[in-house]
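Troubleshooting entry. The earlier prediction with iron/sulfur cluster gave an output that would not parse, so I re-checked the input for stray whitespace and re-submitted. Clean input:
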Amino acid sequence: MVYTYLAKLSPRQKIWLIVSVAAVLLISALGILREPGRPDEAGNQFTISMSIQEIAAKLDVTGKGLARELALSLETPKKKPLSELGISQEQLDHAVEHVLSHRSTGLKYYLFAAIVLFGLVYLTRFGRPDNANISERKLWYPRIPYIICLLATVLVCGFVLGKSPNPMEGTVKVFKSMVGLYPSVIEKLLALIFFVVLAVIGNKLICGWACPFGALQELIYSLPILRKMKQWKTPFWLTNTIRGGLFCVVLLFLFGIVGGRKGFVIYHYLNPFNLFNLDFDHWLILVTVVVSLTLAFLTYRPFCHLICPFGFVSWIAERISLTRVKIDHEKCTDCGLCIKACPTQAAKGRVLDKLFAADCFSCARCLNVCPQDAIRYGSVFSKTSCDKSQKQPASEKGSASNNQ
Ligand code: SF4
Ligand code: SF4
């Protein structure tokens, strides 16, 4: 099937395919070359005879950040030896280990960008052969390139390079830096902007193609089992209310408006990216991972829809995405095939032209099912008949399709 698809690509598309693979390799190689060697980060260079101030400076966190890791108040004196604050060497080692596990590798930013770029070119340039016949649409957008990207991101951006950075952490760290847990708000803001830009360039492509935990859920959901149960889709209004509500609650606790303990981060206990470091320092983290991955057999990306703060942020960013699934309302007969193929309520939102449709993860499932050829993945600036002003009444559309 893949050979048939490749054979049908036009020479121009084959060039796009080769260039995009070459670009991925080049960007990845650049990332590897620019990755600085890691200094010796042995936690045992720190002892409880040292102060918070001395240790924090070497770990590139603020005194408040280290105090929080040690379960102390953010206002704890930072110049006193830790032994005088009642901290044991074991507690210090554990806190240092946790801080070091959050160290970002710059290489992952390159890999995220490379995977998103490949996904974008696949969706817009060579996923569907030029001049393709609609009757051969099942050949379009083969799953193999997508599955390879998902596997690569789980293995390399997940298990090999560890949990940091990732889009969820990128979102939370901005707010943590605002309460003084990290030295530079600007630096954390830039990291979040990087992820949001990737989500805007291609509709949520960073989530759909490059996020390691998102990819793991996607792979599990793609397994051809329990198909009947997967037909039930959780109502988006419900999942989005839970996800957005949780985000607000987290911020209220983080800023100390509720609970009176500034710097308390609920997401710390719900962070499934710890899986990639095999570091479950609280039982709730393990529960989050197990429940998310188990539910992923039945429902699409449960963690993304119910918990992830970047899932919420990127859902808002979707409103200004530059490329996305587009419905040609002139051709659409409201047959519902794309809605059925979509694992979320996103396609339904696109067909009904809803401003706040459900998250679309650019998974391409809807792009090869339309018998009217009314679905494309493309630039929001390209002129199509998707504009509401050009919509035909449903009765006319029906008769038009019957005449075809
Ligand atoms: S919404 Fe899902 S895919 Fe996106 S950052 Fe969160 S976990 Fe990853
Ligand atoms: S099937 Fe749904 S989530 Fe996937 S690309 Fe289409 S609209 Fe988006």
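This one parsed fine. The pocket of iron/sulfur cluster (ligand 2) is lined by residues 325, 341-342, 344, 346-347, 350, 360-366 (CB under 6 Å).
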